[in-house]
Amino acid sequence: MKLCFLVEENYRHDGMPVEVIRRLHAWGHQVDVLRPGGSLHRMTEVVSAGSHDAWVLKTVSGGPGLTLLEAAASAGMTTVNDARSIRGVRDKALAAAIGRSRGLPMPTTYAAAKPELLAEIPESDYPLVVKPADGSSGRAVHLLAAPDRLAALLPELRGEGLLIAQPYVPNAGVDIKVYCVGDDFYATERRSPLHPDRPHRERRVPLSREVAALAAQVGAVYGLDLYGLDVLLGPDGPVVVDVNDFPSFRQVPDAASRVANAVLALAAGGRPTAAVTTPVPVAAGDTL
Length: 288
Hints:
Order of helices and strands: EHEHEHEHHEEEHEEEEHEEH
Structural class: alpha+beta
Largest sheet: 5 strands, antiparallel
InterPro entries: ATP-grasp (IPR011761), ATP-grasp_RimK-type (IPR013651), ATP_grasp_subdomain_1 (IPR013815), CPAse_ATP-bd (IPR005479)
CATH architecture of the largest domain: 3-Layer(aba) Sandwich
Low-confidence stretches: 271-288
Number of helices: 8
CATH class of the largest domain: Alpha Beta
GO molecular function: ATP binding; metal ion binding; ribosomal S6-glutamic acid ligase activity
Number of strands: 13
Pfam families: RimK
Protein name: Ribosomal protein S6--L-glutamate ligase
Strand content: 15-25%
Organism: Actinacidiphila cocklensis
Distance between the termini: 19 Å
């Protein structure tokens, strides 16, 4: 197959997707790599119908790669993930609205273009978790115990763009991260950014039927094939607090082969099958 990977500068040397690209090369597939943030693109010619079997995007929030992915989709090509699905989860305010309307267990979510507007949130909704609507990797996530804590936080929140705020879900101080590759699910446990006193190490944990069913529902709601979600085990059951397209897939066994296999299956118009796990030697210092 002939594939095109759109890799933002932040992920140029990242194991995901670099190892996936190497694995596809080793299996005999042609992979073209475009750097959306580091190259000039003639948009009227960069995408042509039938040029690739699939386009795959690994991007940062607001990165230019999504424009190229949407251009490929408009030309009728397969994209991984779907561009509209990526936009639907990259904007956390939009993701919350979509998820709640489709029956996902998600916290009440407020959105504010100016941090001062958060003062209008009722005191009954505190403690409150505040974070950027386009945030990732725990960036600028804050827990406010009471409304009188907001004023001190305003200078830090300015410049973060659209903000979301959600009532804190009582939990044990750890997030359950579920990685979804086609029809396969893998769960890890890691320290919540709101509980820095907890052990930091991320580790594999058994995936309950309830959380597995919830993960499958998330994929169906947002139209994602390769994704991850953060789940809190609250007093009333699991709650989805974040959804990510094309995550790191940390702790997933032989993640490169599994993701590469999923990409090939999606490019062929099917569902991922059992991953090929033949080791691929990579020379020290080898880069793409």
